[in-house]
Amino acid sequence: MEHITLLIGIVIVTALVFDFTNGFHDTANAMATTISTGALRPKAAVAMSAGLNLVGAFLSVEVAKTISGGIIDESAGIRPEVIFAGLVGAIVWNLLTWLAGLPSSSSHALFGGLIGATLVSVGTGGVHGEAVVMKVLIPAVAAPFVAGLAAMAATRLTYRLARGRDEADTAKGYRAGQIASAALVSLAHGTNDAQKTMGVITLALITGGVIAPHSDPPLWVIASAGLAIALGTYLGGWRIIRTMGKGITDIQPPQGFAAQTGAAATILASSHLGFALSTTQVCSGSVMGSGLGRKGGVVRWSTAGRMVAAWGLTLPAAGLVSAGAAFLADQGTWGVAAVAVLALAVCGAIWAASRRKPVDHTNVNEGPAAEPAGVVTTALQAVAPPPAGPLAAADTEPGAVVADPVPAAAQPAPAAP
Predict the structure, then answer these.
(1) How many whole angstroms separate alpha carbon 260 and alpha carbon 131?
(2) Residue 227 three-state SS
(3) pLDDT of residue 69
(4) Neighbours of 160 (CB within 10 A)
(5) How confident is the prediction for the chain on average, in pLDDT?
(6) Rounded Cα–Cα distance for residues 133 and 147 (Å)
């Protein structure tokens, strides 16, 4: 076995930087609904999520094996420069979508980056196409729908079970349920997303001859990946938390509990099967499902549309950035240095742009600005107008569609003067 070279060390550091961005990019998956409903204070929520992400990183290595030996053929001449270029593309896309407040998939950014860099440096023989379809693309399409349907059914069931009970009496139970389900999502996120970085570092160690092919991630790799994602989670991706908590739908405690429980079950099942799905897509689908499951609930389809568009662009966009980075890195030492300098410059520019309108724990629960209604939204509102009374004033706004409106006959009679 060879010693870790300077280039492999750079790849490991870059992988941990990606893991860090993954942490603050995906904090919203576990804590957005808990923060938006007030079940936990923002700083306490991200601290709990960070600790459980770290614990989850030690629970399984199945997803790491999918990354290190499933999608990319480690025996096809993959070099550390290729992995470095793939990570650069994933980091740049993560930061761009974070700046826009869009909950895109860090996982798909990583997959797209690795695939794009491999295609440029090695060719199609370096990518296992069947594994990409079976363990990445199919779960990417199916998981948000499965989680959304589960959350919608759970939301309807939750409201049905609580029918006729005083809201104040059930608030404490829902708060405890939200905290428990958010903890489960954080644990599940650690078992899925932290392993992706473990898989990348393991792949770099294999390609550099440091460990044998098909090896499990060493303990120090597991620990460092868990710490990096936990630190990123603790710092909190407040922009995306605002979008997930307030931008997609107005979430009440029963909806938050249902959405997080459905998401956690989906993520844990996929981790057990070795499916490297996007926890962002799962949690976003659950939030939308919970909005459709509550009578009078709203889903802001304009925000959801931009989010889905970002999902579709993530793989090719990260792949294109990584393909350019791989082309430069293949030129030799100066190419690797040029990629590193350009990546630092782009990341610095994105950070500077984010400081113009900062979002942090003090303003994360401010609602999104009103958006003009689109053609589809306007047509749906004309067919199914929002219910009259206080509910319409509280929950309906431009760009939002009312799901399952309450009939006028079921509205409570006004109190006598």
Answers:
(1) 28
(2) helix
(3) 57
(4) 8
(5) 76
(6) 20
Output the CA angle 323-325-327, nearest 5 degrees. Answer: 70
Share of the chain above pLDDT 70, in %: 76
Do the Cβ atoms of 279 and 201 come closer than 8 Å?
no
Q: With residue 297 as reference, give the H or E element that holds it.
A: strand 297-299
Q: Are 67 and 203 in contact (CB under 8 A)?
A: yes
Q: Which residues of 371-409 are buried (b: 16+ CB within 10 A; e: fewer)?
A: bebeeebeeebeeeebbeeebbeebbbebbbbbebbeee
Type and span of the H or E element at 402: strand 401-403
Nearest to 114 by CA among 326, 263, 273: 326
For 237, the token pair is 């991706």
Q: Closest Cα to residue 241, out of 14, 5, 16, 23?
A: 23
Question: Given this model, what pLDDT does residue 150 score?
Answer: 84
**pTM, 2 dp:** 0.74
Task: Return the DSSP state at 68.
Answer: I
Decide: 53 and 184 in contact? Cβ < 8 Å.
no
Tell me the β-bridge partners of 401.
Answer: 299
Pairwise CA distance, residues 245 & 254, whole Å: 14
Distance of CA 238 to the CA centre of its chain: 13
pLDDT of residue 338: 93
Q: C-alpha distances in angstroms, 29 versus 34, 242, 267, 269, 284?
A: 10, 11, 11, 16, 7
